[in-house]
Amino acid sequence: MALGGQGAMAGNSGTAPAAAPASTPAQEALADQLSQAGVKYYGSWRCPACHYQGRLFGQSAMERLPYVECAKPNALPQQAQACRAAEIKAFPTWIHPLGERRIGVQSLNELQRWIQQP
After folding, report:
1. Do the domain assignments include residue 71?
2. How many domains are there within the chain?
3. I need a surface site. Which of 25, 47, 74, 83 has the fewest CB within 10 A?
4. Secondary structure (3-state) at 28
5. pLDDT tens digits along 47-97
């Protein structure tokens, strides 16, 4: 499955991140597969790498991801607590239900291979 979206860039320096492009059906399918597999994606609204990761998925696929916001403890206290419980130290962090972690921006192809491992 060709996932595309590998060359997208986050916003330029000192400005708000650019809006994520439209998602392809393959990007949406991967987001659904990650969610169904029980993977969690921990990030922060102010993390440039997280914005870049989101642009790799595109807008509608990003909304389907099993995302946990770690940097809004007042607005999202349960998510902030989940980040503390998962001992998140860097963004983005992906955690597979079996405990394996991937830290940093992941290519869509790498995420696809990761969830297909036996």
Report:
1. yes
2. 1
3. 74
4. helix
5. 999 999 999 999 999 999 999 999 999 999 999 999 999 999 999 999 999
Max Cα separation, the chain? 43
**Within-domain flag for 4:** no
Q: Please state the pTM of the whole predicted model.
A: 0.82
Structural domain span for residue 38: 25-116
Cα-Cα end-to-end distance for the chain: 18
Amino acid at 117: Q
CB 112: neighbour CB atoms within 10 A?
17
Whether 1 is in a domain gets the answer no
Q: Are 43 and 99 a contacting pair, CB within 8 Å?
A: no
**What whole-number distance in Å separates Cα of residue 9 and Cα of residue 70?**
22
Residues with Cβ within 8 Å of 55's Cβ and at least 6 positions away in sequence, in order, are 5, 8, 9, 10, 17, 18, 20, 21
